[in-house]
Design a protein that fits this description.
By secondary structure, this protein is of the alpha+beta class. The chain has a three-stranded antiparallel beta sheet. Strands 2-3 form a two-stranded antiparallel ribbon. The radius of gyration is 15 Å and the shape is globular. It has one helix and five strands. About 30% of the residues lie in helices and about 30% in strands. It has one domain (about 10-70). The chain has one helix at about 50-70, and strands at about 10-15, 20, 30, 35-40, 45-50. The longest helix is centred in the last third of the chain and has 22 residues, at about 50-70. Bound molecules: zinc ion. Zinc ion (ZN) binds near residues 29, 49, 50 and 52.
Length: about 70
């Protein structure tokens, strides 16, 4: 049986190798070198999100998954 498609392919954590801007709020949120962040790759685009924004995004994602699950069960 082929492997199931992963819904979160292209989303992973990474340690910033240099100072980065947060993709959600690039003027106010800074990701310092050595800090863990969330990295997303969609097509050729790549964005990084600070821990604060990433945790909120994961919370939203969990809610979205719960809605989808309830609809399918
Ligand atoms: Zn942020």
């Amino acid at each position: 049986m082929p492997a199931l498609k992963r819904l979160l392919a292209g989303v992973e954590t990474a340690v910033a190798e240099r100072r980065r801007k947060c993709g959600h709020n690039p003027t106010k949120h800074v990701i310092s070198k050595g800090e863990v962040c969330l990295e997303t790759r969609v097509g050729l685009g790549r964005k990084n999100y600070c821990r604060e924004c990433a945790l909120k995004m994961l919370e939203n994602g969990l809610e979205d998954l719960a809605v989808l699950r309830r609809a399918l069960e």
